[in-house]
Amino acid sequence: IKVAGGQGFRFYAPAMNARALERLDLERDLREAIRQGGLSLHYQPQIDLRNGQIIGAEALARWQHPRRGWVSPGDFIPVAEESGLIGPLGKWVLHEACRQNQAWQTAGLPPVTVAVNLSALQFAAYDVVDLTSAILRETGLAPEYLELELTESAAMADTLAFIEATQRLKELSISLSLDDFGTGFSSLGYLRQFRIDRLKIDQTFVNDIVQDPGSAAIVTAIINLAHSLNLAAIAEGVETEAQLQFLRAHDCDEMQGYYFSRPLPASEFEALLRSERLL
Ligand code: C2E
Ligand code: CA
Ligand code: CA
Ligand code: CA
């Protein structure tokens, strides 16, 4: 079709155009949301399997869109990455998570680590080391209470830069975990050069551990690999008692999942932390 533009005519392929316009819409709204405080964080507890205590929380971005309702991070993180908004978005997430965790500690709640996701693109395009140290300074959070969740794709994109960045982050005393572990086919040979603290077993494996011997074998192998490298193993997406029992029996260190709790708004996570202390 032909559409009259400002000056003259422009040609559009109708299907592509609808998607592209939709995309532009989402991008404009996301930019607005980052600027106007339209994003929030939910916190999912991370549990120590030995004593059942909450030792941390993963911060997960949420966007309540004025017309579309809740947009999931699986949909808006890719938009942010493709539009360059991942810079300001990631900065906001990191700042908000550190600010919130410091506020909890100031209020006398039991100290927990807050884990923040960094996308591979964010890791490649921005100086996360400088950003992180500036935010820790601004918020006053001790670096021991911040963990960054990195992905194998970040490690593979530029392995030497990744090794160097993880070293610098470790020098700041921040914890590091490798997220979605087992899905990215990164070279195991590099693993001992990454200055990381834990492997986060991807939820697709955890999902099937009870029914599928293959997944069970992978999960067991990841736990053993982690331990032989002196790393902790954390399982995500734990939904059932049977999965929990399997993980316990195989010496997994920590877990996270709907079985214990969904990601919660800050106020609800705070209430959970308070009730923990009264136990
Ligand atoms: P992820 O880092 O692998 O986060 C785990 C996802 O699994 C979260 O989805 C969480 O809500 C969900 N989940 C937790 N427990 C269970 C369970 O027991 N069963 C099932 N089926 N799912 C569970 P969510 O919050 O939709 O986030 C999706 C992805 O978006 C995250 O995957 C992460 O890659 C990305 N993301 C979220 N927040 C941020 C952020 O602030 N920055 C960046 N760069 N990425 C983010
Ligand atoms: Ca994660
Ligand atoms: Ca994950
Ligand atoms: Ca994932």
UniProtKB/TrEMBL annotation:
This is cyclic-guanylate-specific phosphodiesterase. GO terms for molecular function: cyclic-guanylate-specific phosphodiesterase activity. The chain holds residues 308 to 586 of 736 of the full protein. GO terms for biological process: phosphorelay signal transduction system. The keyword Glycoprotein does not apply. It comes from the Bacteria. It comes from Thiocystis violascens (strain ATCC 17096 / DSM 198 / 6111). Residues 23-277 form the EAL domain. Keywords: c-di-GMP, Phosphoprotein.
